[in-house]
Amino acid sequence: MKQFRRMTYPYIVWALILIVAPMLLIVLYAFTTKGNDVVTTRFTLHNFARFFSDSLFLKVLLRSLKVAAITTIACLLLGYYPAYYIAKCSETFKMRWVLIITFPTWINMLVRTYAWIGILQDDGIINTVLGWIGIGPIQMMYTEFAVIVGMVYNFIPFMILQIYTSLTKMDGSLLEAANDLGANKFQSFLRVTLPLSLPGIISGITLVFLPAVSSFCIPSMLGGGQYMLVGNVIENYFLHSGDWNFGSAISMIMAIIIIVSMYITKKVDVTEKKEA
User: Fold this and answer.
1) Which of 27-36, 82-91, 156-165 has the lowest mean pLDDT?
2) Please, are residues 272 and 202 in contact by the beta-carbon 8 Å criterion?
3) Is the pLDDT of residue 41 over 70?
């Protein structure tokens, strides 16, 4: 046992350096003001008050939450059936479909998002096809639509895999019992399949909503700097404005929102398990 503990020491040190120390610095910057040096030791809540007193920042926050919610709902609606279909396939086809779904995630997100620029721009693939039938061009780039499409494309594999994992654990005899009791396919889905897949749905919502609400790469590329989300604001204050104190305060606000979201989804998951 002692030897095992000694083996964990390097990992603990590594975690302290790469995880705990940066988080402590963010907290330090958030509650201090910029002085002659990097920060002063004077405690202040000015950075948080600045955020909540400015309607522009609140508007960006609400926009981020809205886009993340739309992305999550779209991933759920578009991803549930593929997950259900894969779960019903034979073992050989399951592995093939899982490989197909996860393959895009092997490619860097920047490259995948750049591909959507070529698809959505005025002379891109979609507008070219629409032009053949006398429609367009339609302005899709640098809009909320483009940002949501990019997020759904990048995050939907997480939703599919989580739901698929829950469905593969489902006991098939339950569906047979529902059928014997006179339930049709739709009723069996509502009464058996959907409730048993809720843990996967909740996990998928968590894995999609959290990165979507704090994303800055996709809005920056597909929004063209004209469609700002909270992640872009944080990036701007850290990299361009140099106001690390205010950027850290916004980061802490987002961290609290994410923690509350995770707590709510966890409570819902626990409630569903108790009812089951």
Assistant:
1) 27-36
2) yes
3) no
Domain 56-275 has CATH 3.40.50.12780: no
Chain centroid to Cα 118, Å, comes to: 23
246-265 pLDDT tens trace: 999 999 999 898 888 888 87
What distance in Å separates the CA atoms of residue 137 and residue 126, rounded to the nearest whole number? 9
Percent share of the chain, pLDDT over 90: 26
pTM: 0.84
Cα maximum dimension of the chain: 77
Alpha-helical segments (H) within the chain:
2-15, 21-30, 46-53, 55-88, 91-102, 109-120, 125-132, 144-168, 172-180, 185-188, 194-196, 198-213, 217-222, 230-239, 244-275
CA separation, residue 223 to residues 113, 153, 264 (Å): 11, 15, 30
DSSP code for 166: H
The ranges assigned to domains in the chain are 56-275
Four-CA torsion 247, 252, 258, 262, nearest 10 degrees: 160
Residue from 21, 11, 51, 37 nearest 253 by CA = 51
pLDDT of residue 226: 72
Beta carbons of 21 and 34 less than 8 angstroms apart? no
The residue count of the chain comes to 276
pLDDT at 83: 93
3-state DSSP call for residue 50?
Answer: helix
Residue 109's CB is within 10 A of a number of other CB atoms, namely: 16
